Amino acid sequence: MLKQLIPRPVLSLTVLLLWIAITNAGSLGLLLLGLLLAVIIPRLTLPFWPQAPRLANPLRALRFLGVFALDIVVANWGVARRIVGPSERLSPALVEIPLDLRDPFLATLLGSIVSLTPGTVSIDVDQKHWVLLVHALDAPDPQALIDEVKNRYEAALKEIFAC
Questions:
Q1: Which stretches within 85-103 are classed as H helix?
Q2: Cβ distance 117 to 72 under 8 Å?
Q3: Would you call 33 exposed, middle or buried from its count of C-beta atoms within 10 A (0-12, 13-18, 19+)?
Q4: Average pLDDT taken over every residue of the chain
Q5: In the chain, what percentage of residues exceed pLDDT 70?
Q6: Which residues contact 57 (CB under 8 A, 6 or more apart)?
Q7: What is the tens place of the pLDDT at every residue in 77-135?
Q8: Is the pTM of this model over 0.85?
Q9: From residue 110, how far is each of 36, 39, 86, 98, 154 by CA, in Å?
Q10: For residue 94, what are the β-bridge partners?
Q11: Strands of 93-98's sheet, edge to edge?
């Protein structure tokens, strides 16, 4: 019965904790709305990934979230600095990043992580050739961007989800 009500308990808990953090849920109404969302959202998204990858290393996931949050702050600063300067200094590039990940959900998650980092946008996850196409605002050395995404994000996702 509980498995039917809450098919993905970790996702439900994450939704609830994010709701509390975002809304600063000090009232009973906000808390109840967060609980309702924590039950409904995982149920609505169940058809999108019936075989969700299993979180194998939760502590590594927490460490990764901290690194990712710091990367967002640093990238925001870097993008702001580059935008204020002369546009001739920018080296925009389309970069193809070969993926070791073979799970469509995790490849899409990696693309989302890249897109959330200012200065880069993932354009496509080619699941036939397992390549992530990324547009970078400033990538004078495309190989450095490839190495950063693979070492900093893809490797962490492989470790977190044991794949």
A1: none
A2: yes
A3: middle
A4: 91
A5: 99
A6: 159, 160, 161, 162
A7: 999 988 887 777 899 999 999 999 999 889 999 999 999 999 999 999 999 999 999 99
A8: no
A9: 28, 25, 31, 12, 7
A10: 135
A11: 93-98, 131-136, 120-126
